[in-house]
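Hi P.,

Sorry for the delay on this. The queue was packed all week, but I finally got your sequence through. Input first:
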Amino acid sequence: MTNGSRLATATFIALAALASLAQHAKAAQCGNGPGGFEAWKQELSREAGAKGIGATAVAALMQTNYASATIAADRSQHSFSLSLDQFLAKRGASTIVSRGRSLKQSQAALFASIQARYGVPPGPLIAIWGMETGFGSQRGNQNMLSSIATLAYDCRRPEFFTEQLYAALKLVDRGALSGATRGSMHGEVGQTQFMPKNILAYGTGNLDVAANALNSTANFLRANGWRAGAGYQPGEPNFAAIEAWNAAGVYQKAIAIMGRQIDGGQ
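Then the structure:
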Protein backbone atom coordinates (compact mmCIF):
# COMPACT_ATOMS: atom_id res chain seq x y z
CA MET A 1 0.00 0.00 0.00
CA THR A 2 1.36 3.45 -0.93
CA ASN A 3 1.65 6.31 1.53
CA GLY A 4 -1.17 8.05 -0.33
CA SER A 5 -3.42 5.00 -0.01
CA ARG A 6 -2.62 4.70 3.67
CA LEU A 7 -3.49 8.35 4.20
CA ALA A 8 -6.74 7.98 2.30
CA THR A 9 -7.69 4.89 4.32
CA ALA A 10 -6.88 6.57 7.63
CA THR A 11 -8.88 9.63 6.62
CA PHE A 12 -11.87 7.46 5.69
CA ILE A 13 -11.75 5.61 9.01
CA ALA A 14 -11.52 8.88 10.94
CA LEU A 15 -14.48 10.37 9.07
CA ALA A 16 -16.52 7.22 9.63
CA ALA A 17 -15.77 7.37 13.35
CA LEU A 18 -16.79 11.01 13.51
CA ALA A 19 -20.01 10.25 11.66
CA SER A 20 -20.76 7.46 14.14
CA LEU A 21 -20.13 9.78 17.08
CA ALA A 22 -22.33 12.43 15.54
CA GLN A 23 -25.13 9.92 15.03
CA HIS A 24 -24.80 8.75 18.65
CA ALA A 25 -24.86 12.36 19.86
CA LYS A 26 -28.17 12.86 18.04
CA ALA A 27 -29.75 9.81 19.69
CA ALA A 28 -32.63 10.52 22.04
CA GLN A 29 -31.13 11.69 25.34
CA CYS A 30 -32.70 11.03 28.74
CA GLY A 31 -33.57 13.85 31.11
CA ASN A 32 -34.54 14.45 34.74
CA GLY A 33 -37.26 17.01 34.17
CA PRO A 34 -39.78 18.14 31.57
CA GLY A 35 -37.44 20.61 29.86
CA GLY A 36 -36.03 18.24 27.25
CA PHE A 37 -39.08 16.03 26.73
CA GLU A 38 -40.30 17.60 23.48
CA ALA A 39 -36.86 17.38 21.85
CA TRP A 40 -36.54 13.80 23.08
CA LYS A 41 -39.92 12.92 21.51
CA GLN A 42 -38.83 14.35 18.17
CA GLU A 43 -35.67 12.26 18.11
CA LEU A 44 -37.36 9.12 19.46
CA SER A 45 -40.05 9.47 16.79
CA ARG A 46 -37.41 9.55 14.08
CA GLU A 47 -35.74 6.50 15.57
CA ALA A 48 -39.09 4.69 15.83
CA GLY A 49 -39.95 5.43 12.21
CA ALA A 50 -36.56 4.14 11.11
CA LYS A 51 -37.22 0.92 13.03
CA GLY A 52 -40.50 0.29 11.24
CA ILE A 53 -43.01 1.81 13.67
CA GLY A 54 -45.98 3.06 11.67
CA ALA A 55 -47.29 6.58 11.23
CA THR A 56 -50.29 6.06 13.55
CA ALA A 57 -48.09 5.06 16.49
CA VAL A 58 -45.53 7.78 15.80
CA ALA A 59 -48.32 10.37 15.73
CA ALA A 60 -49.63 9.02 19.05
CA LEU A 61 -46.14 9.31 20.53
CA MET A 62 -45.92 12.94 19.43
CA GLN A 63 -49.19 13.66 21.25
CA THR A 64 -47.85 12.45 24.61
CA ASN A 65 -47.22 14.82 27.50
CA TYR A 66 -44.64 14.73 30.26
CA ALA A 67 -46.36 12.86 33.11
CA SER A 68 -45.27 14.53 36.34
CA ALA A 69 -47.62 12.34 38.38
CA THR A 70 -45.90 9.23 37.02
CA ILE A 71 -42.48 10.53 38.03
CA ALA A 72 -43.75 11.37 41.51
CA ALA A 73 -45.20 7.86 41.87
CA ASP A 74 -42.00 6.28 40.57
CA ARG A 75 -39.99 8.07 43.24
CA SER A 76 -42.26 7.10 46.14
CA GLN A 77 -42.92 3.36 46.04
CA HIS A 78 -42.67 2.91 49.78
CA SER A 79 -45.10 0.03 50.35
CA PHE A 80 -42.62 -2.57 49.07
CA SER A 81 -40.31 -1.72 51.99
CA LEU A 82 -42.93 -2.64 54.59
CA SER A 83 -42.85 -5.85 56.59
CA LEU A 84 -45.02 -8.68 55.25
CA ASP A 85 -47.71 -8.13 57.90
CA GLN A 86 -47.73 -4.39 57.26
CA PHE A 87 -47.94 -4.95 53.51
CA LEU A 88 -50.83 -7.40 53.84
CA ALA A 89 -52.72 -4.95 56.04
CA LYS A 90 -52.04 -1.98 53.76
CA ARG A 91 -53.17 -3.86 50.67
CA GLY A 92 -56.35 -5.19 52.32
CA ALA A 93 -55.43 -8.86 52.15
CA SER A 94 -58.35 -10.05 54.26
CA THR A 95 -60.81 -8.32 51.92
CA ILE A 96 -59.08 -9.77 48.86
CA VAL A 97 -59.26 -13.27 50.33
CA SER A 98 -62.91 -12.94 51.34
CA ARG A 99 -64.04 -11.62 47.98
CA GLY A 100 -61.69 -13.97 46.21
CA ARG A 101 -63.35 -17.01 47.75
CA SER A 102 -66.74 -15.76 46.54
CA LEU A 103 -65.41 -15.17 43.03
CA LYS A 104 -63.85 -18.61 42.98
CA GLN A 105 -67.32 -20.07 43.53
CA SER A 106 -69.32 -17.72 41.29
CA GLN A 107 -66.82 -17.98 38.42
CA ALA A 108 -66.03 -21.66 38.92
CA ALA A 109 -66.42 -22.56 35.24
CA LEU A 110 -64.00 -19.83 34.14
CA PHE A 111 -61.33 -20.83 36.67
CA ALA A 112 -61.76 -24.52 35.84
CA SER A 113 -61.16 -23.81 32.16
CA ILE A 114 -58.07 -21.74 32.96
CA GLN A 115 -56.65 -24.45 35.21
CA ALA A 116 -57.32 -27.10 32.58
CA ARG A 117 -55.53 -25.06 29.93
CA TYR A 118 -52.60 -23.59 31.88
CA GLY A 119 -52.33 -25.67 35.05
CA VAL A 120 -52.74 -22.62 37.31
CA PRO A 121 -55.30 -22.93 40.15
CA PRO A 122 -57.69 -20.08 41.04
CA GLY A 123 -55.96 -18.89 44.23
CA PRO A 124 -52.88 -17.11 42.91
CA LEU A 125 -54.74 -15.70 39.90
CA ILE A 126 -57.46 -14.25 42.11
CA ALA A 127 -54.87 -12.92 44.55
CA ILE A 128 -53.04 -11.14 41.70
CA TRP A 129 -56.34 -9.78 40.34
CA GLY A 130 -57.33 -8.42 43.76
CA MET A 131 -53.88 -7.04 44.53
CA GLU A 132 -53.39 -5.32 41.19
CA THR A 133 -56.77 -3.63 40.64
CA GLY A 134 -59.18 -4.57 43.43
CA PHE A 135 -60.84 -6.97 40.99
CA GLY A 136 -60.99 -4.40 38.22
CA SER A 137 -62.17 -1.42 40.26
CA GLN A 138 -58.84 0.48 40.23
CA ARG A 139 -57.24 0.16 36.81
CA GLY A 140 -55.75 3.64 36.77
CA ASN A 141 -56.68 6.77 34.87
CA GLN A 142 -53.34 7.92 33.46
CA ASN A 143 -52.61 8.19 29.76
CA MET A 144 -50.74 4.94 29.18
CA LEU A 145 -48.50 6.18 26.38
CA SER A 146 -47.60 9.41 28.19
CA SER A 147 -46.65 7.47 31.32
CA ILE A 148 -44.38 5.05 29.46
CA ALA A 149 -42.86 7.74 27.24
CA THR A 150 -42.06 9.83 30.32
CA LEU A 151 -40.35 6.89 32.02
CA ALA A 152 -38.44 6.06 28.83
CA TYR A 153 -37.20 9.67 28.74
CA ASP A 154 -36.42 9.77 32.47
CA CYS A 155 -32.79 8.93 33.31
CA ARG A 156 -33.63 6.48 36.12
CA ARG A 157 -34.49 3.41 33.98
CA PRO A 158 -34.52 4.50 30.33
CA GLU A 159 -33.46 1.15 28.84
CA PHE A 160 -36.27 -0.82 30.48
CA PHE A 161 -38.97 1.69 29.64
CA THR A 162 -37.73 2.35 26.11
CA GLU A 163 -38.31 -1.35 25.42
CA GLN A 164 -41.78 -1.00 26.94
CA LEU A 165 -42.42 2.09 24.81
CA TYR A 166 -41.52 0.32 21.58
CA ALA A 167 -43.82 -2.55 22.58
CA ALA A 168 -46.61 -0.06 23.26
CA LEU A 169 -46.07 1.59 19.87
CA LYS A 170 -46.30 -1.81 18.17
CA LEU A 171 -49.59 -2.43 19.97
CA VAL A 172 -50.88 0.96 18.81
CA ASP A 173 -49.89 0.06 15.26
CA ARG A 174 -51.87 -3.18 15.58
CA GLY A 175 -54.91 -1.40 17.00
CA ALA A 176 -54.71 -3.31 20.30
CA LEU A 177 -54.02 -0.04 22.17
CA SER A 178 -54.37 3.61 21.23
CA GLY A 179 -52.97 6.97 22.20
CA ALA A 180 -56.04 7.39 24.41
CA THR A 181 -55.63 4.14 26.38
CA ARG A 182 -55.75 4.70 30.14
CA GLY A 183 -53.69 2.79 32.66
CA SER A 184 -51.80 3.02 35.93
CA MET A 185 -48.85 5.22 36.82
CA HIS A 186 -46.20 3.11 35.08
CA GLY A 187 -48.31 2.32 32.03
CA GLU A 188 -49.82 -0.96 33.23
CA VAL A 189 -53.21 -1.74 31.69
CA GLY A 190 -56.10 -4.12 32.21
CA GLN A 191 -57.63 -6.09 35.04
CA THR A 192 -54.32 -7.58 36.15
CA GLN A 193 -52.04 -4.73 35.01
CA PHE A 194 -49.91 -5.87 32.10
CA MET A 195 -46.98 -3.90 30.76
CA PRO A 196 -46.78 -3.64 26.94
CA LYS A 197 -43.98 -6.19 26.43
CA ASN A 198 -45.98 -8.77 28.36
CA ILE A 199 -49.11 -7.95 26.36
CA LEU A 200 -47.17 -8.74 23.19
CA ALA A 201 -45.85 -11.97 24.63
CA TYR A 202 -48.76 -13.32 26.67
CA GLY A 203 -51.86 -11.19 26.11
CA THR A 204 -55.08 -12.80 24.91
CA GLY A 205 -57.70 -10.30 23.81
CA ASN A 206 -58.88 -7.11 25.51
CA LEU A 207 -57.28 -7.11 28.96
CA ASP A 208 -59.99 -4.87 30.38
CA VAL A 209 -62.17 -8.01 30.18
CA ALA A 210 -61.55 -10.08 33.31
CA ALA A 211 -61.60 -13.48 31.58
CA ASN A 212 -59.00 -12.34 29.05
CA ALA A 213 -56.78 -10.81 31.73
CA LEU A 214 -56.93 -13.92 33.91
CA ASN A 215 -56.14 -16.21 30.96
CA SER A 216 -53.24 -13.93 30.04
CA THR A 217 -51.93 -13.98 33.60
CA ALA A 218 -52.07 -17.77 33.68
CA ASN A 219 -50.32 -17.81 30.29
CA PHE A 220 -47.54 -15.63 31.76
CA LEU A 221 -47.14 -17.88 34.80
CA ARG A 222 -46.98 -21.05 32.69
CA ALA A 223 -44.42 -19.47 30.36
CA ASN A 224 -42.32 -18.65 33.42
CA GLY A 225 -42.16 -22.22 34.63
CA TRP A 226 -45.49 -22.93 36.33
CA ARG A 227 -46.03 -26.69 36.66
CA ALA A 228 -49.54 -28.08 37.07
CA GLY A 229 -50.05 -29.62 40.51
CA ALA A 230 -46.84 -28.26 42.07
CA GLY A 231 -46.90 -25.96 45.10
CA TYR A 232 -46.50 -22.20 44.90
CA GLN A 233 -45.36 -21.25 48.40
CA PRO A 234 -41.79 -19.95 48.97
CA GLY A 235 -39.37 -22.79 48.29
CA GLU A 236 -41.87 -24.72 46.17
CA PRO A 237 -41.50 -25.12 42.39
CA ASN A 238 -44.09 -22.59 41.25
CA PHE A 239 -43.00 -19.75 43.49
CA ALA A 240 -40.44 -18.76 40.83
CA ALA A 241 -43.28 -17.95 38.43
CA ILE A 242 -44.77 -15.57 41.02
CA GLU A 243 -41.32 -14.03 41.43
CA ALA A 244 -41.27 -13.41 37.67
CA TRP A 245 -44.59 -11.57 37.89
CA ASN A 246 -43.35 -8.99 40.40
CA ALA A 247 -39.81 -8.41 41.67
CA ALA A 248 -40.78 -7.26 45.19
CA GLY A 249 -40.29 -10.02 47.74
CA VAL A 250 -43.08 -8.81 50.02
CA TYR A 251 -45.52 -8.81 47.08
CA GLN A 252 -44.51 -12.34 46.06
CA LYS A 253 -45.06 -13.72 49.56
CA ALA A 254 -48.39 -11.90 49.86
CA ILE A 255 -49.66 -13.49 46.64
CA ALA A 256 -48.59 -16.93 47.84
CA ILE A 257 -50.32 -16.47 51.21
CA MET A 258 -53.56 -15.05 49.81
CA GLY A 259 -53.64 -17.61 47.03
CA ARG A 260 -53.33 -20.46 49.52
CA GLN A 261 -56.12 -19.02 51.65
CA ILE A 262 -58.40 -18.55 48.63
CA ASP A 263 -57.66 -22.10 47.52
CA GLY A 264 -58.76 -23.37 50.91
CA GLY A 265 -55.58 -23.43 52.97
CA GLN A 266 -54.60 -21.38 56.01
